[in-house]
Amino acid sequence: MTILDGKKISNDIKAEIKAEVDEMKANGEKVPHLAAIIVGNDGASMTYVNTKVKACEKVGFESTLVRMSSTTSEVELMDKIEKLNKEDSIDGFIVQLPLPPQIDTQKVLLAVDPDKDVDGFHPTNFGKMSLDMTSFIPATPFGILELLERYNIPTKGKHTVVIGRSHIVGRPMSILMGRSGFPGNSTVTLTHEYTKNITQITSQADIVIIAVGIPDFLKAEMIKDDAVVIDVGITRVPDESTKKGYVLKGDVDFENASKKASYITPVPGGVGPMTIAMLLKNTLLAREQRRERK
Question: Which of 26, 137, 160, 243 could join 186 via S-S bond, C-beta 3.0 to 4.6 A?
Answer without folding.
Answer: 160
